Amino acid sequence: MTGAMIFFSIMGAFIKLAAEQLHSLEVVFFRNFLAFLMMLPWLICQGPGVMKTRRIGLYTARSLFNFVGMVTGFTAITLIPLAEATALSFTAPLFATIGAALVLGEVVRARRITALAIGFAGMLIVLRPGMEAVSTGALLALLNSVAIAITIIIVKKLTDTERPETIVTYMALLQSPMALIPALYVWIWPDPITWLWLIGLAGAGTAGHLMYTKAIQLAEITQIQPLDFIRLPIIAVMGYFIFDELPTIWTWIGGAVIFASTAYVTHREGQLARARQHQAAP
Question: How confident is the model over 108-121, as pLDDT tens digits?
């Protein structure tokens, strides 16, 4: 999960760089199409049988919601600073935790809820609501969080029977035509440097999704989701050095609060996991 967050942070920077020339709809298309090309060697080695599934409905639903999440999230990155977009995306764990409890029947312990609430408080410190008007970019970032939370739950269901590589390949395969149709209305051929950003974007996104899907397969959503918060300090540093976006002191204070909650819940869940293993040992 930590590796996935690092790659997703890198992906965010490449999105912003690519969007300097291309419309966000076109960036979404290339992100999926190039990712599918990157998964082709694996698909060829495994054979077409690896794509056989009885859960095409779930795959389609996941792709639809993820496509909405990509469009809203990518567009938000072009309208507001990276750190702000990232901070707003931290509402996804709140939606995912509620959904995991209601749909998947996962047990959400009081300490985990407290840690998530503290993380949310850290996000509010970053944003300081009421100080500024809510922008279109901020609203799109929140819509992205809702869509991503839904896809998290669907992916968790898919990992019961499906391989992480198959899930990622289906995502790229189904979302490429979804993105191509609207992208044709704003199409511009990328220049050489933008191709570099697009390839980096697809590579980072594919690696991140492979790690993320595997993480969901190995652990409960509510256990690993707080690690999503570590993207904020990474993004803040990248935004400063690449885009000259200087984070405020509130970004760092909020980030510290978020990281503290993440560290606590991860440590606590590790203790509980070891205790369960000890009790189950003969």
Answer: 777 778 877 888 88
Instruction: Output the average pLDDT for the chain.
Output: 86
Rounded CA gap, 11 and 42, in Å?
22
- Reported as a single tens digit per residue, the pLDDT across 129-155 is 665 666 788 889 889 988 988 898 888
What backbone torsions phi and psi does residue 170 show, to the nearest 5 degrees?
Answer: -60, -40
- The CA-based diameter of the chain, rounded to the nearest angstrom, is 64
Cα distances from 161 to residues 93, 154, 167, 217, 273, in angstroms, run 24, 12, 10, 10, 23
- Are 269 and 109 in contact by the 8 Å Cβ rule? The answer is no
pLDDT tens-digit readout, 41-94: 999 999 888 899 889 999 999 999 999 999 999 999 999 889 888 888 877 777
Closest by CA to 43, choosing from 226, 166, 176, is: 166
Cα–Cα distance between 148 and 150 in angstroms, integer? 5
Closest C-alpha among 231, 274, 238 to residue 1: 231
> Which residues have CB under 8 Å from 220's CB, separation 6+?
100, 106
